[in-house]
């Protein structure tokens, strides 16, 4: 199947690569792909291409990697050149998914049929950088994908369509991300087919109430505050898989990454952060409310291990205590 609607695509991580792959597979011409500059990553901190760039290169699509699209920003010459390239590339619509650069009004105005954004939440809840993590962390029962017409606000544009998915009690950011990436890929292809057929897409303004912001995840959030309820910490652990993970630091200063945990009833009246039981079924830690059973752990420089294997090479014991981070 081939289509005539020409799509410029802007995106960076795996979430965006899934959408680009679907657009390409559906037969839409993609004359240009925008993605973030290569970044140092991994142990050797070598420059690495984004998942979107890798897909584009494997499929012979042209790629541009401006550090900015804002003429008034730190890279005015590069921004001007990129805007010129967008203007000089014949296209009909621009699709943006987790691109990571601010698009000023003059960029939004270039595509004749506008810019469509694939956003990983049910807007207006969780506008901003980390909607998947924050939905899990907050205990939301469901989330989804919203396609919206982009404007200059932060995820404020009119909504075109949505797909909903329940958040299960064992979803992590990794599992939910993969489901939402597939939903986003499906929704955008459907929207592009309709746009090609009708020349426009119906959209609805976002409701004014229910707006929340999903702040970017900071490494400093990894430290678990055992004074909080176990149910809240369990959600935090799921939200922080695969990044940055939950971290507990013992009173001797050694740290443990916590990758899986479930709330359980507390045994006795122990201070938050106290390890109350260590067995092949889990390491139980007292919390501000109830207790947390840790079932997948990792030593610095080690691998993620089920608790049974972790304990074979560890000296965790009942009575030890995790430090309480400084209250924010």
Automatic annotation (TrEMBL):
Domain Formyl transferase N-terminal: 7-192
Residues engaged in binding (6S)-5,6,7,8-tetrahydrofolate: 121-124
EC number(s) stated in the UniProt entry for this protein: 2.1.2.9
GO MF, one example: methionyl-tRNA formyltransferase activity
UniProt xrefs under InterPro entries: Fmt (IPR005794), Formyl_trans_C (IPR005793), Formyl_trans_C_sf (IPR037022), Formyl_transf_N (IPR002376), Formyl_transf_N_sf (IPR036477), Formyl_transferase-like_C_sf (IPR011034), GART_AS (IPR001555), Met-tRNA-FMT_C (IPR044135)
Keyword annotations from UniProtKB, A to Z: Protein biosynthesis, Transferase
CDD domains: FMT_core_Met-tRNA-FMT_N (cd08646), Met_tRNA_FMT_C (cd08704)
Entry keyword annotation includes Transferase: yes
Catalytic activity from the UniProt record: L-methionyl-tRNA(fMet) + (6R)-10-formyltetrahydrofolate = N-formyl-L-methionyl-tRNA(fMet) + (6S)-5,6,7,8-tetrahydrofolate + H(+)
GO CC terms: cytosol
EC top class, as a word: transferase
Function: Attaches a formyl group to the free amino group of methionyl-tRNA(fMet). The formyl group appears to play a dual role in the initiator identity of N-formylmethionyl-tRNA by promoting its recognition by IF2 and preventing the misappropriation of this tRNA by the elongation apparatus.
NCBIfam families hit by this protein: fmt (TIGR00460)
PANTHER family in the record: METHIONYL-TRNA FORMYLTRANSFERASE, METHIONYL-TRNA FORMYLTRANSFERASE, MITOCHONDRIAL
Annotated family: Belongs to the Fmt family.
Name of the protein this chain belongs to: Methionyl-tRNA formyltransferase
Originating species: Paraburkholderia ginsengisoli
